[in-house]
Design a protein that fits this description.
Rossmann fold; 7-stranded parallel sheet; binds nicotinamide-adenine-dinucleotide; binds thymidine-5'-diphosphate
């Protein structure tokens, strides 16, 4: 594997992964293929834009002809697929784009891999495909009991990957990661939304009682886990990636306010998200056997993340303008 196609590489995790790959593997060439939706942002890749090993191509993973042309032109060996619609709240407003990108788009990449005999398709998936887990922790073999259009679309993408492995021998691997936090996360997701609101003394909209639990992991830990599976994972297999420590949203919100020296009174309870999954939890024994475990505790990850947003207002202030606030109003007004 030398020539990697990183789809969705201009998004949050994808851009962190590209930077990580170029640092770690001096002989790799990385082609980022990204549609640049509202969540895609070339600012995320600004510091590597002059690296001769990196190329950016704007395109949609649903565009068969363009995907095939890029795979051929750059002599691609493997695809790492981050491209997706990713925000649960948006999936409740507009499910169609999730089905299109997360299901059909995944199929297009699998077909290209099959047609050109690629060495690997790695699918970046999520703990949300297991559905809420009120007790215990999800194993890779657990059933997928999804409850939101986002998680249902991601689950369908995963199942299509496994179908292509079984039916056509396409060498796929899948990772199911827990919630990521860190640099370059679009500030509509809870953690960067809360941090940037708190900096500006705007209330933090906490859904329901705020007692929902997530396993928040540092994005570079997740990238490292994806790298381990890409290079050592067994085709046809799924690997959970998380810290196995869950935190309540209200605890996360209070910690952000403490780190920024802001009052807890900025927390504003708002009407809960419909179908809100109460808790996710991953059993990560399988990936531990390959030598990976998350390096940052939740507190360390959150502290680094808060510091990055404090130091990089140039990045998020540009985003939190016109279209962003239109979405914000639609999402939070009257709640
Ligand atoms: P993101 O929303 O920040 O980025 C998604 C990227 O995909 C954007 O750059 C966007 O422009 C691009 N994209 C969207 N539709 C596309 C299409 N049709 N064709 C080409 N590009 C397209 O997402 P993220 O948080 O970086 O998540 C990346 C992947 O990781 C997703 O597959 C997501 O399901 C998965 N994941 C995310 C988390 C998390 O906490 N953020 C956790 C586990 C798994
Ligand atoms: P989010 O970042 O949207 O990730 P996901 O729903 O995919 O886990 O949300 C993380 C948690 O924070 C989730 O339990 C929903 C909650 N949340 C809020 O309380 N308020 C908000 O404004 C948002 C966006 C999320």
């Amino acid at each position: 594997m030398r020539n990697l196609l990183v789809t969705g590489g201009a998004g949050f995790i994808g851009s962190n992964f590209v930077r990580y790959l170029l640092d770690k593997y001096p002989d790799y060439r990385v082609v980022v293929y990204d549609k640049l939706t509202y969540a895609g942002n070339l600012d995320n890749l600004l510091d590597i834009q002059d690296d001769p090993r990196y190329t950016f191509v704007r395109g949609d993973i649903c565009d068969v002809a363009r995907v095939e042309a890029v795979v051929q032109e750059y002599d691609i060996d493997a695809i790492v697929n981050f491209a997706a619609e990713t925000h649960v709240d948006r999936s409740l407003m507009q499910p169609g784009s999730f089905i299109q990108t997360d299901v059909y788009g995944t199929y297009v990449l699998l077909e290209a891999a099959r047609k050109f005999g690629l060495e690997r398709v790695h699918q970046v998936s999520t703990d949300e495909v297991y559905g809420q887990v009120l007790e215990g922790a999800s194993l890779e073999t657990d059933p997928l009991i999804t409850r939101s259009p986002y998680s249902a679309s991601k689950a369908a993408g995963d199942l299509m990957c496994l179908a292509y492995f079984t039916s056509f021998g396409v060498p796929v691997t899948i990772t199911r990661g827990s919630n990521n936090i860190g640099p370059y996360q679009y500030p509509e997701k809870a953690v960067p939304l809360f941090i940037t609101n708190a900096i500006d003394d705007i209330p933090l909209p906490l859904y329901g009682d705020g007692r929902q639990m997530r396993d928040y992991q540092y994005v570079l830990d997740h990238c490292e886990g994806i790298d381990v599976v890409l290079h050592q994972g067994v085709p046809g297999e799924i690997y959970n990636l998380g810290t196995s420590v869950e935190t309540e949203n209200i605890v996360m919100a209070r910690l952000i306010l403490d780190l920024l020296g802001k009052p807890h009174s900025l927390i504003q309870h708002v009407t809960d998200r419909p179908g809100h999954d109460r808790r996710y939890s991953l059993n990560c024994d399988k990936i531990a056997a390959l030598g990976w475990r998350s390096r940052h505790s939740f507190e360390e990850a959150l502290e680094k993340t808060v510091r990055w947003y404090v130091d990089n207002e140039w990045w998020w202030r540009k985003i939190k303008t016109g279209e962003y606030w239109e979405y914000y109003r639609r999402q939070y007004e009257g709640r």
